[in-house]
Specification:
Chain A: Keywords: DNA-binding, Phosphoprotein, Transcription, Transcription regulation. Chain A: It comes from Gryllotalpicola koreensis. Chain A: It holds the Pfam family Response_reg. The structure holds two protein chains of two kinds. Chain A is α/β, with parallel strands linked by helices. Chain A folds into two domains: about 130 residues, Rossmann fold (3-Layer(aba) Sandwich); about 80 residues, Arc Repressor Mutant, subunit A, CATH 1.10.10.10. In chain A, a hairpin with a 2-residue loop joins β4 and β5. The longest helix of chain A has 15 residues. Chain A is globular and about 45 Å long. The N and C termini of chain A lie far apart (about 40 Å). Chain B has a five-stranded mixed beta sheet with strand order 1-2-3-5-4. The radius of gyration of chain B is 40 Å and the shape is rod-shaped. In chain B, β4 and β5 form a beta hairpin. The two termini of chain B are about 35 Å apart. By secondary structure, chain B is α+β, with helices and mostly antiparallel strands. Classes of the chains: A alpha/beta, B alpha+beta.
Chain lengths: ~230, ~375
């Protein structure tokens, strides 16, 4: 394991990946990015379980399929130790639906990025910052290819409401969505509230409708034809 | 396993007693009938001066059958079949002589033989000898049948042991096959696909550094690798072992349904039920393969646009149904995949049925719990 020093304003990122070359590529990329520092590299679930101090990192980058275990289970274990930890799951294939296995009340701060996207610095940095802030985020490149399931609650929403939800799933804030769609933040708010109502989502102390909406988006969309 | 060891004590006891009582009973009736009706033997002490065939026959038969009952009770207590050869011979002799003595006492008591009469005493001695021989014969036949039953039972046990061994070996082979399939699928899903990602990334990096047309070719190669990784490798992995089954049957079912085309409406009332059940790996694989086959047939042959998967469990059985709104199963169609899955279901005590539903087909898998 290689440990690096960090500064107070920098996000500390742990990498758990069993493939040495990919792990190295990620670390090089993270170290070369302002505001991020690699707080530790781990080659297996066992190594991370024993050596990773969850309270000493802000975000964990976890391979979904580690040679000796499951990245999702490891992520949940780390979150129990540090409830504010952001967890970004990486996978070589589109297995985004696995995020639905995370219980609703734990779903905030979880993200999914394909390994291909994770090697693009802007996508990786954006996803890391999003999960660190407690948002649920899906890989925008994969998300863009997904199609809405027929007769699902998502199919009942207007095209604009689905568009706004898709951008929420990408991890964008309301102001970023407004800027991207060329509408006002109030309009974004309106579309979002209508979408929440259409999906039957309500805010409660233990349920964040924004996170619930991302889950609904994931549950009611499917990978497009490859 | 010794040839003399008791394999089924209660069953052998039953064979011994039934055979002995039957043989001795038949001999009893035969000898009484022969004495009274054929040889015309009468006892003056019993019948007085006027011979009475019915009375004579009744008393003699009753004495003989009572003797048989006493010998049967004694044989039930002694159980000669549990001894080795010498013990059997001794116990049979003792039972036969004892039975003959009981018969003699009964004959004397009922007046068939008058003891003060020297002729009667001589006849009684002869009766003791013949009774002993006939009772020994009856007990011997009983032991012979016990031997036959024991051999048959031994054959059954050997056949059963052989069948159990075959079932166990088959199960071990299936477990090993599943293990190898799972490991191969995990390797493909994990490290092989991961390696492809790394190669794709390196190709993209080289493409950025190279001028066209080499750069374009490298990008095209990377794209082809991506297609191969996401398409072929994933398919190969799924064929070896259901995707996400290592996370449980609920996760595997969700992964399966998540791959259905978007124009298919899906109702999942199964994954939440499956998540709460403790199922063998064999049963989990079977459930996912059955649902997979049901979905594939509904879409390919039944032209379904809506699919519903339901699971229900009680203390005795788990029922999983896949129903659709398509054309339903075609008459006379060949369902080789379902037949194969049906045999696998039967092997673990379950059933698999495809039937026409209200709208389309209904595939029902029932597994014991």
């Amino acid at each position: 394991m290689v440990t690096h020093t960090d500064s107070p304003r920098t996000l500390r990122v742990a990498v758990v990946e069993d493939q040495p070359l990919f792990r190295k590529m990620l670390s090089v990329l993270l170290d070369a990015t302002d505001g991020l520092v690699v707080a530790g590299e781990y080659a297996s679930a066992a190594e991370a379980s024993q050596g990773l101090d969850a309270r000493a990192v802000d975000v964990a980058l976890l391979d979904l399929r580690l040679g000796d275990g499951d990245g999702l289970a490891l992520g949940r274990d780390l979150r129990r130790r540090n409830p504010s930890l952001g967890v970004l799951v990486l996978s070589a294939s589109d297995s985004m639906h696995v995020l639905l296995e995370i219980p609703r009340h734990e779903a905030g701060g979880w993200g999914y990025l394909s390994k291909t996207s994770s090697l693009s610095a802007p996508a990786l940095v954006f996803a890391i910052r999003s999960v660190a802030e407690g948002r649920a985020v899906l890989d925008p490149a994969i998300r863009a290819q997904r199609e809405v399931r027929r007769q699902s609650p998502l199919a009942q929403l207007s095209a604009r409401q689905r568009e706004v939800l898709a951008l929420v799933a990408d991890g964008l804030t309301n102001s970023a969505i407004a800027a991207q769609l060329g509408i006002s933040p109030r309009s974004v708010d309106g579309h979002l509230n209508a979408a929440y109502a259409g999906l039957g989502l309500q805010a409660s102390p233990d349920r964040n409708p924004r996170v619930e909406a991302v889950r609904a988006y994931l549950a009611h969309t499917v990978p497009g034809p490859s | 396993m010794s040839d003399l060891a008791e394999l089924d004590p209660r069953g052998e006891q039953r064979v011994m007693l039934v055979t002995t009582v039957l043989v001795a009973g038949i001999l009893s009736i035969y000898t009484s009938t022969q004495s009274v009706l054929v040889l015309g033997v009468f006892s003056h002490a019993l019948s007085g001066s006027t011979p009475s065939q019915p009375l004579e026959l009744t008393v003699r038969t009753a004495v003989n059958l009572a003797t048989v009952a006493v010998v049967a009770a004694a044989a039930s207590a002694v159980r000669p079949q549990r001894f080795r050869a010498a013990g059997r011979a001794l116990s049979v002799c003792a039972l036969a002589v004892g039975g003959a003595l009981v018969r003699g006492v009964l004959q004397a008591a009922t007046g068939i033989y008058a003891l003060p009469d020297s002729g009667s005493r001589h006849a009684l001695l002869v009766e003791l000898l013949t009774s002993s021989c006939l009772l020994a014969l009856s007990l011997g036949v009983g032991l012979l049948f016990v031997g036959v039953a024991r051999q048959a039972r031994r054959g059954d046990l050997l056949r059963l042991a052989a069948q159990q061994r075959v079932v166990q070996l088959l199960r071990e082979v299936q477990d090993e096959e599943l293990r190898v399939r799972r490991e191969l699928a995990e390797t493909i899903h994990g490290s092989v696909q991961g390696t492809f990602v790394v190669i794709e990334a390196q190709l993209h990096r080289l493409a950025q550094e190279a001028a066209d047309p080499s750069g374009a070719e490298l990008r095209m190669l990377a794209a082809q690798l991506g297609t191969l990784r996401e398409g072929e490798l994933r398919r190969m992995s799924a064929e070896l072992y259901p995707v996400d089954l290592d996370r449980g049957p609920d996760a595997a079912l969700r992964a399966l349904l998540a791959r259905l085309p978007s124009w298919v409406a899906v109702t999942d009332e199964a994954s939440a039920v499956l998540a709460d059940l403790a199922l063998s790996q064999e049963a989990q694989v079977l459930i996912i393969r059955v649902v997979e086959d049901g979905l594939s047939n509904a879409l390919r042959h039944g032209h379904a646009r809506a699919i519903r998967v339901v699971a229900a469990a009680d203390d005795h059985a788990l029922t999983v149904t896949v129903s659709d709104d398509g054309d339903g199963p075609e008459d006379g169609a060949s369902w080789s995949g379902l037949a194969r899955l049906g045999r696998r279901a039967e092997a673990i005590g379950g059933t698999l049925r495809l039937a026409a539903g209200r709208d389309g087909g209904v595939l029902t898998l029932v597994l014991p719990r």
